[in-house]
């Protein structure tokens, strides 16, 4: 299977859309999978079991967040190498990344399994949920190496320009997880009822089967990034690549820490207004998860496309990819925002009874906050572009400033004067600041001079890239490969 040149030569609009849709589908599948599993555990095993899985999933989210940035760095390096038609370099990244991810996941798995009770105790897990949480989390730690490597393979494929294969195997994983949850929780035929352990075991089996199946299919296709016997020496870590994975990956991983930590603090502020307000905020947040998905999918796709075009030296296409990403965000995120505004009460009624007092509060929260997710989407798309060159510190600083320097102080300082309104309005205020700083950095920053590995001359672009999303060829052939002005 040879490299796909569509990310560097295809019509930008159509290519970005077709690349984004499987990424969006994968995000939706993951969220639906988590929701369905929570229903099985919460309704049939009780509140203590649901509390146990909730505590365990917070730890899992943190562990996956740690490697998120490193996975993105891996995606960008592979994208740039494939864009430059430097397949040997791409394979070196795969070899170093494979060794790094396997080693890291085994270390995290062993330490996590041993210290599971201590981790849960430090989180003040309720006494009635703690024994269940230990059982569940220990099985999740056994599954962690498969989860990490599964994530690594998916991000590698996206860096190489393939977002469909990861989607298909994500679908397989989710279907297996959803089907196996009730089977292993309650037992069927000779299979015993495993309770909460069955839910965790379903996740382990689903991840392992999907990973093995995906690798088998890639070998069957003879994917150009696979390592064969004569290339096993590439598994020995390359120092420059390993340094780049960590140095560029950690700032991107810290972005997840900034977001999640600010969300925890925000929740603590909401909790002071009582259970009705907290319930309202909780159900509104459920809807926001889906509203943000198109922007996250487009941003990730923009990163993959830009990385390949930077590798190929096609800087004029980089600007056009960014503009198309911004347009898609307006259309896709804007459509979801408009839909929820139109059916505000009905959408919230999925989670709350029609006579619930919290529905009115949640409707008001949505009216104040929802529109700002379009601005959030702009920020994510711009971040997707600049980080594809290796410029990862500016997005981290911008996120920290907008969330910890603006959003949280706004909520704290104005709360004595306008109450909970300060919390709701802090979202749009933070989004305005972040999008303004992101566009300023995109326009005036030095991100085009960043690099993720020591700079090498760009390989000459293969063919003449289309100049617009409609596929019209560029009139100046030299401009297609010239550095940004």
UniProtKB/TrEMBL annotation:
Residues 462-485 are annotated as: Disordered. Keywords: Cell membrane, Membrane, Transmembrane, Transmembrane helix, Transport. Pfam families: MatE (PF01554). InterPro entries: MATE_fam, MdtK-like, Membrane_Transporter-Flippase. It is a multi-pass membrane protein. It comes from the Bacteria. The keyword Cell membrane applies. The keyword Transferase does not apply. It is found in: Cell inner membrane. The chain crosses the membrane at residues 58-81, 93-115, 135-155, 167-188, 194-219, 240-270, 290-314, 326-344, 364-384, 391-410, 422-442. This is MATE family efflux transporter.
